[in-house]
């Protein structure tokens, strides 16, 4: 199982799909999970692998979606109702799961989000080459020239070679931030020649880069990437424009209506019996009572609810 999950982690990373890698790090008997068991949880709430029975999975699904939203790792402690807790661990999320068989487990959740994608046009120029080199150091993933779909930003550093073509390609791909490396005068001429709409022009940064008094090619690259990192972190360039999105931004991996399908995000509801958060899905116990749909953490809660109505 560990080999299969490791292969799946590699595959999902290569596909730039957001997911959570969950690993059981501690377990108390009786429980079906043992330390080292692991799984991946996708943005639709589906689980591949094993981190415990169906009751534990319910808590893992909900917590995993939270980590996809904020990008932070989490130690999830799942305790049966009325059980003595593990020794304190600062930063752990404790959930009481009334349908556990009596054991308690701790699961480390690590959200795996795609690295920001950066397009670089003009890698044959000294500045373009420096941008590509520094981008790798900053853990930005670079794309092939003109393959800009899904990019958070594009640096146009052709210094007069195909700059207009690169800008047009980036705009058509929905890239939210296009950094043009050029003087103020040439930047104005390039943008005027393109005949851009107001919306398109707002996405282009003429004479890109923060003012750090840069002189060398590497310093110019630093100033350009500093501006891009700033805008990515402040949300301006966190994701491509809607027409070109290949991935949901973190803020969109949230609670939505409808059953989750491959590639869709999931929604969570509250089990009306035990109060647990439940991720809606085809394999989740469900019942329709008086025309209203309800979902439950386990079959026991569902049967109890239906019997009481």
Automatic annotation (TrEMBL):
From which domain of life does this come?
A: Bacteria
Annotated signal sequence is: none
* Family annotation (InterPro entries): MoCofactor_Util/Proc, TRASH_dom, XdhC_CoxI, XdhC_Rossmann_dom
Q: What Pfam family does this protein match (any one)? A: XdhC_CoxI
Instruction: Cite the TRASH domain residue spans from the record.
Output: 271-309
**Which PANTHER family does this entry report, sorted A to Z?**
ALDEHYDE OXIDOREDUCTASE MOLYBDENUM COFACTOR ASSEMBLY PROTEIN (PTHR30388), MOLYBDENUM COFACTOR INSERTION CHAPERONE PAOD (PTHR30388:SF4)
Q: What is this protein called?
A: TRASH domain-containing protein
**Which species is this record about?**
Paractinoplanes tereljensis
